[in-house]
Design goal:
two-stranded antiparallel ribbon, 5 strands, 19% helix, 2 helices, alpha+beta
Length: 102
């Protein structure tokens, strides 16, 4: 897959599902109805994707862990205090409870 674009999923975000034309018309003719219309629309999950190109020959296999290596503890989230998960693709720790990188 070297030299090919790769789609990497990012954190899940929620956005309102509304019709822009209806919202604009309501703002022009009756702005209180536009506010009610916007805030009554359902929130739908939207997954953010980032595209990047992996250079040819850039991938190297990770070093094999020795069986005697002690497991390392993941750092705790600074916001909620829960354990984080290491995301090797971004080389960072991610808190699924807060939906942000630690």
């Amino acid at each position: 897959m070297a030299g090919q674009p790769v789609m990497a999923p990012g954190p899940i975000q929620y956005k309102r599902q509304f019709d822009l034309l209806i919202l604009v018309l309501l703002i022009i003719f009756c702005w209180p109805a536009a506010i009610v219309y916007y805030f009554t629309r359902p929130m739908v999950p939207v997954s953010e994707y980032q595209t990047y190109v992996q250079p040819a020959g850039a991938y190297t296999a990770p070093p094999a862990a020795s069986p005697s290596a002690a497991p390392t503890l993941a750092p705790l989230c600074k916001t909620c205090g829960r354990p984080t998960t290491f995301i090797p693709q971004y080389n960072r720790y991610y808190c699924y409870a807060c939906n942000q990188y630690a």
